[in-house]
Every structure is written in C-alpha cells, then in structure tokens.
C-alpha cells in the first residue's frame, strides 16, 4: 500500500517482505470444521494468479489456511509437512490438531526477529471429534476459537462472524448451534461480501469441509474484478 | 524440552560449555546424569538454558528489531563474545544498521494488576488483545499460571509473553525436580529477568508481574526444624511488617497470619543448615524486558494502569477480605477498560493462596456498564424526588 504522492526526499530500501493479499476463514462446529480461502494472488496493483488457494491439507483431520506473504506461506507449509512426517516416523501416529497448533507456535517464534509474514488459521477436529479452530499471529501467539477470519479482509469479516456465529451484540436471539449446511452457506455469503469490498479478495472461493469421514473440497466462483 | 527438540539447540550451547564438561557430556549427550546430583545433558546450572532465538541475535542478515543505534562495534568481535565460554550469552551492542520496520503490528495494550493482602495475592486483567487499532482477540488470556502456586500477568507482545512464560514454567519445573522444592517468587523473577537480559535493546516486549506463594514443601533435611514453629510466628511478623508498610496500612496482621497458618502446614520457615532464613508467604514481583525487577505489594501494568492505580491506591489495604479484594480488583479493571481504548471485553481474576491458585469465572464487563447505568438512573430519580419534596 504505497503512497504515490511524494513531496520530499525519498529513500528506497529493499524490503524482504511483500504483501500478496488473500483472506482465510475457519469455522468450528460440533463435529465438523470448515476452512475457506479465496484464490487470488496479488501484489500491488497486479494479479499474479487467479487460482492460488490458501488452504493446505496437513492431515486427514487438519487443514491450515495461510495468507500474507506467499513466499513465507510456501516455506512454512513445507516445514510443517516435514515436521509432520518426522513425528509420524518417530511416534507412529499422526499429529493431532492441538499438537500441530502448539508446534506451529514454536516454529513461528523461532523466527521472532525476522518473522514469517503469514497469518495462519488451523481448522480441524480434535481428539474427541469436535471441531477446533486455532488462530495465530505472525510471531506465534495462538489460541483456540470457534471461528476466525484472517488476511486482508479479516477486519470486515470478523465482526460479521461475531454477529452471525457468536450471536454477539444481539438481544433476544436464540442461540442455535451451527449446522454444517448453514455454516457452508454462511461462509459463501461472507466471502461474496468480502470480494465486493476488498480488492485483494476475489476470483474464486475454495472451501474445505473436515468431518470424521475426511476432507471435502468445493470451489465457488467469486467476482473477478 | 519442546523448544530444544524443535530448534536443535545442541549445536549452539555445546560450543560454549568448557572443555572439561564437554568431554564428560559428549559420552552421554542426551542422558541426564542425576546420580551426580547435577544434570549434565544440556545445562549444569540454571543459566545454561536454551534461548530459542539466540542464533538470530547475531546471524540475522537484516537487523530486524534491533532498535539500539550504537555505531562503534563491528560484527565480528560480537560474534566471538557470543561463543565464548561464559554462562550467559554476553549482551553486546548490535551492529549499527537501521532496523527494517515490520509490515504488521504486534499485539499491545492492556490493563493488568496484582496486589498482596492478608489472604494471599490477587491478580486481575482485562482480555482485549489489540493490534494498532484492531481488536485481534477479545477473549485472550493475560494471566497465565506458571505452576500450582504461581501465576504471572502478562503485558506487552502476546507472543513474547506466552513463550517466555512457557520457558519459565519449564525452568521452574526443572528446578523443582533437581532441588526438591519450588523456587521462590524472588528467584523466579530473577531467572526471568536474566533470561530476558540478552534481548535488551531488541523489540521484545514483556512486562510481567509474578504473583506467588512461597514456601511449602518440607525437605527431609529441614524436618528437625519444624519443632521451632511457634517461635517463628513473631519473626515472621517482623519480616512481614516492613513489606506491608510499603504501601498499605498494617491492621493487625498477626491474627490473620496465625489464622492462615492453621490452614496449612506450609508456613514453617525452612531453616536448612547452609541456607539463610527464607520468607514464606505471598510474594509479588514485577519483571520487565528492559531489565527492571521490583518487589512490591501493588503493581499495575499496561496502558490502562494509571486508571487502575487510582482505584487501587484508594482502596487496597493489608486487612481486606477476599471478597473486598476481588471487588476492588474487578472495579479497577472495569474503570480502566472504560477509559482506556486498548483495554476491554472481559475481566479475569486469579487468587493465589497457600493452597494454590484459583480462578474466578470470566466476567463480561459489558453487563457491568448496563448495571451501572441502571444504578445511576435510579439514583437520579431518587434525588429528583427528594429535591422536589
């Protein structure tokens, strides 16, 4: 987000970071979890790709969504995949969502003074089969949530989720638990709204639905302008 | 051992261990030789601990976060200093390049407070985690339990606080296993302060208050001194009064102290032969990443602390009951969240006693605002009717 109205002396310095845009969202239900992201990869005023989804499948029960700087997203997912394999080979079982979240926190903090510029959200099922969402900041602080939006349109989506899923700031409303169909519909509506108002979000929406049967993926077109 | 496994720390500190120890340790690298009374694997003293980001202090190609601007030293001497066999990595001025600003903001802004009173230590905090104008998390946890008898309030960058608390918990647990007793709050504060010292000058930001209850387990070594329990009560009173006189009025501490003595056997002063007499009871320390380490009876940290101090200075006394203390703490956080934009949402209250810490259910302050509005409305109506009569 550069300022193009220069009035004085300007120093151009190399920045190792770039902002590639994109929004990720995760919702946890009673026995399911949804991780959704748009598929636009942009930089400044250009679009590099319209088909670059930001959800990465880690295990049968865990999907991670990473948005921010695409280079760091790729490296981070490679590191996580390697660590998952190491864990599988030495402990003879797959990592649980909670364990992956704790591990990611230490991976991110090990780069405290040259951070990974990535906003991560992990969605999956915990050991009891309930939906779990873990949201991170770029240096590794994390906590478990029911829903979270991250990325460029997060400030627009998070209040909407607070209202519709968390029933916050509403009086006299019955707190109905979220069904899977309603959650998927909500995610679609929310991303359509985000694509309207955020320039870095659009092109297509990739939804990963995680249940105990496995992970299902859906792709829905969004605004391309 | 999570952080050590993660980052392959063997390479980093083994160079700094002296040759003798290295020879001994190399034979059994990962095993801890507790028979000798000393763990040889990775740390022989409390200061040989793994700092997860130590390698980036001098290896980072771009000087992120180095906000000190000394120009004198070049990089090579400082690298040698780092690898020299000293117990702590020497703190050295960083190379003089300007720091590249990070493209994203870190979480800051909070109101936390802690104070001591006759019933133990009370810690309270809000739960809003803000990132330069955006509320990143309305329900974060700012009071983290460290072990059964200590909690720490956190302020500053949330990731830093979460991680350093984790490291502190691990080190305290190791100390407890090695020495058979818990480290005192004073010792824990010193440990945390020393762990944060190498990062002085960087943008690491941790401002924590450690609230704990010291003294507890009896070692077998100290068992014969238990009989002198009764005469220690006066001594304990005298050691307590200088502390209590710091900020609060002393209102008959002796009855309260002896009352809590009957609650548990942990009030016995441990008088082991080689150690000096240690204080046993509640303890409160403030530790900051710029190097401050203060002992006190009342602290409030964060952007909302001035507002909290005004309530606390007015009401905190040594002789408060638990209910009164809880309500003052809650009120202080509530007023601070009202006036400070970066504090808000819920309030957490933790209470540390000789039996350990207990947590009050998280309370939504939004309800409190509405209740207060109702109260004010009723008062105005009542005043209106009395005036009109």
From TrEMBL, chain A:
Its main location: cytoplasm. InterPro entries: Ntn_hydrolases_N, Proteasome_bsu_CS, Proteasome_sua/b, Proteasome_suB-type. The keyword Translocase does not apply. It holds the Pfam family Proteasome. One of its GO terms (cellular component) is proteasome complex. Signal peptide: none annotated. SUPFAM superfamilies: N-terminal nucleophile aminohydrolases (Ntn hydrolases). Keywords: Cytoplasm, Nucleus, Proteasome. It is found in: Cytoplasm; Nucleus. Belongs to the peptidase T1B family. Component of the proteasome complex. Component of the proteasome, a multicatalytic proteinase complex which is characterized by its ability to cleave peptides with Arg, Phe, Tyr, Leu, and Glu adjacent to the leaving group at neutral or slightly basic pH. The proteasome has an ATP-dependent proteolytic activity. This is Proteasome subunit beta. It comes from Ameca splendens. The lineage of its organism: Eukaryota, Metazoa, Chordata, Craniata, Vertebrata.
Automatic annotation (TrEMBL), chain B:
Transmembrane segments: none annotated. Its main location: nucleus. It comes from the Eukaryota. InterPro entries: Ntn_hydrolases_N, Proteasome_bsu_CS, Proteasome_sua/b, Proteasome_suB-type. Pfam families: Proteasome. CDD domains: proteasome_beta_type_5. It is found in: Nucleus. Keywords: Cytoplasm, Proteasome. PANTHER family: METALLOPROTEASE TLDD, PROTEASOME SUBUNIT BETA. This is Proteasome 20S subunit beta 11b. It comes from Ameca splendens.
């Amino acid at each position: 987000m550069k300022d193009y109205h220069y009035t004085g002396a300007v120093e151009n310095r190399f920045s190792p970071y770039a902002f590639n845009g994109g929004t990720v969202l995760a919702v946890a239900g009673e026995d399911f979890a949804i991780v959704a992201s748009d598929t636009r990869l942009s930089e400044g005023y250009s679009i590099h790709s319209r088909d670059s989804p930001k959800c990465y499948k880690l295990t049968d029960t865990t999907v991670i969504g990473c948005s921010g700087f695409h280079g760091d997203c790729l490296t981070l997912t490679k590191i996580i995949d390697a660590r998952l394999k190491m864990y599988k080979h030495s402990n003879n079982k797959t990592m649980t969502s909670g364990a992956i979240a704790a591990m990611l926190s230490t991976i991110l903090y090990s780069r405290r003074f040259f951070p990974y510029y990535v906003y991560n959200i992990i969605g999956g099922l915990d050991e009891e089969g309930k939906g779990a969402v873990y949201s991170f900041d770029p240096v590794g602080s994390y906590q478990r949530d029911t829903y979270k939006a991250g990325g460029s349109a997060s400030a627009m989506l998070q209040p909407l989720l607070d209202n519709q899923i968390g029933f916050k700031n509403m009086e006299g409303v019955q707190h109905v638990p979220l069904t899977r169909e309603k959650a998927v519909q909500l995610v679609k509506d929310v991303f359509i709204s985000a694509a309207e108002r955020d320039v870095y979000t659009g092109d297509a929406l990739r939804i990963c639905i995680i249940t105990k049967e496995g992970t299902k993926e859906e792709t829905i077109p969004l605004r391309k302008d | 051992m999570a952080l050590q496994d993660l980052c392959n720390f063997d390479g980093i500190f083994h160079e700094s261990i002296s040759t003798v120890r290295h020879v001994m340790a190399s034979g059994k690298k990962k095993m801890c030789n507790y028979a000798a009374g000393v763990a040889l694997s990775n740390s022989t003293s409390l200061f040989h601990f793994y700092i997860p980001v130590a390698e980036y202090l001098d290896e980072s190609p771009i000087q992120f976060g180095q906000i000190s601007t000394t120009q004198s030293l070049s990089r090579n001497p400082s690298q040698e200093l780092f690898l020299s066999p000293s117990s702590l990595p020497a703190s050295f001025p960083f190379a003089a390049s300007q720091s590249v600003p990070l493209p994203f903001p870190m979480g800051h802004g909070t109101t936390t407070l802690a104070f001591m009173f006759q019933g133990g230590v009370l810690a309270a905090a809000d739960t809003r985690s803000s990132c330069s104008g955006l509320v990143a998390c309305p329900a974060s946890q700012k009071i983290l339990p460290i072990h059964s008898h200590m909690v720490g309030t956190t302020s500053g960058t949330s990731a830093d606080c979460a991680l350093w608390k984790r490291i502190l918990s691990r080190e305290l647990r190791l100390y407890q296993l090695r020495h058979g007793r818990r480290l005192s709050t004073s010792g824990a504060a010193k440990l945390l302060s020393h762990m944060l010292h190498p990062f002085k000058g960087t943008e690491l930001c941790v401002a924590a208050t450690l609230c704990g209850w010291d003294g507890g387990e009896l070692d077998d070594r100290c068992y014969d001194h238990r009989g002198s329990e009764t005469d220690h009560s006066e001594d304990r009173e005298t050691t307590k009064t200088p502390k209590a006189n710091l900020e609060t009025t002393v209102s008959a501490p002796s009855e309260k102290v002896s009352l809590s003595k009957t609650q548990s056997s942990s009030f016995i002063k441990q008088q082991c032969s080689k150690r000096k007499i240690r204080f046993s009871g509640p303890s409160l320390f403030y530790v900051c990443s710029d190097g401050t380490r203060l002992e006190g009876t009342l602290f409030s940290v964060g952007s909302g602390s001035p507002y909290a101090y005004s309530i606390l200075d007015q009401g905190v006394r040594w002789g408060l009951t638990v209910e009164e203390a809880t309500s003052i703490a809650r009120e202080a956080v509530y007023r601070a969240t009202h006036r400070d934009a970066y504090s808000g949402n819920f309030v957490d209250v933790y209470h540390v006693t000789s039996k350990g810490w207990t947590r009050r259910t998280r309370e939504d302050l939004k309800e409190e605002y509405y209740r207060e509005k109702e109260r004010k409305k009723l008062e105005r109506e009542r005043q209106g009717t009395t005036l009109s009569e």
